[in-house]
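PROTEIN DATA CARD
Card holder: FAS-associated factor 2
Chain length: 440
Origin: Boothiomyces macroporosus
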Amino acid sequence: MDHLEPDQQESVLQFQNISGIAEISLAVEILENHDWDLPQAVESFLTEQPIPSKIPSEPSSSRAQSRIPVRAPNPVRTAGPVSRPTPSIFSLLTTPFIWGYKFLWNILTLTLSFLPFWRNRRIRGNSDPTECAIKFRKEFIKNYGQKAPQFFEGSYSNALDAAKRELRYMLAVINSEEHDDNDLFCRDTLTSDLFTSFIRDKDILVWAGSVQESEPFKVAELLGATKYPFMALIALHESRMKVVHRFEGITEPDTFIQITTRFMSQLDLSYAQARAEKREREAARSIREQQDLAYQQSLKADREKAEKLKREQELAAQKEREEKLKEIEIELKRQKKREYKLELAQNLPSEPEQKDNVANLSVRLPNGSRLTRRFDADSKIKQLHDFIESNDLDPIDLLSEFVIVNTYPRKEYTDLNITFKEAGLYPSAAVIVEEISEDD
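Structure generated from the sequence above:
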């Protein structure tokens, strides 16, 4: 397995541990066919129809061995088309035997299916493992009451993963409704106060199923069950979940607690070390997360600060552009106004000679200076306005408007289309120039 990544090597070991497949190349091939998704590979393996395999009989003294028994490998079907690697020589040699086994098993199953005792033992179809677990729990509670342990609602592989991840002991329980001792075991052991309290106090994860269902049947075969009811105590050992003891047949609560406590006392130290290491990892991860959070917050603050500065700079630049455009616009208006004043001066009618029909006007400008001029009394006072406009009206701004005012009595001349006579500015008058404010 040297060519595999460390996490892939760990997946191979876990898959071998769960499936009982001894050949590394076959385990690798199955995992590759499932894109190295360990739970999917295990679930696919466990939900296949069983192939008869010889489980080596063990003396009762060997039931406490810390390993899952090896079993014959099952062919794996994938959920969709998967590119398969080139078969190994071993696979090519063993394939005929595997298919031969399947052929003989199908013939044997078909023959035995006509016998009454065999029909009662037939395994139900490949139902969803999670649905199967939920169904088992509901039926168990219906038959034996609410004192049942908190059964794990999921597949066997998911239960193993959860127990390993949460550093908990695991108990696999497999019942057979056809067994005479099944009801007695469920009533006197699984629902006893002593048993359920111990399971709860020790936080043991309990996975259970009926051997009449597809996945529990496979699990029973994997765990080496030869007698029912069956329980297997599974614990984390050397980073792998392993069977540490098998309980076969009726097991009294006292006996179960005594045996389980003995194995726990042997494994509690390694569990304590694993939990301490997990706490250290979680603490280190928490520190890293806090550091990452602080770093991200610092980055966010710097980013917001930079964005704020950028917005301020953009607003300042935009304001400067607008002010420059406004200045240019004002200067253009001033230039047009200067050209307009020059044009007015050039287009004014000639000043008439002093005679009877002439109005003599005296104009006081805002700067205190005075202008005098004669106008035809029958002409419109717009000539007076244009005459004033053509002069420098400082301090009135070049772009500001002005109004001609007669001080006594006060009268503003806003209608420039009346004649000097109509305005009362004939034969002579004195007026002033006032700037029109924006409020006006």
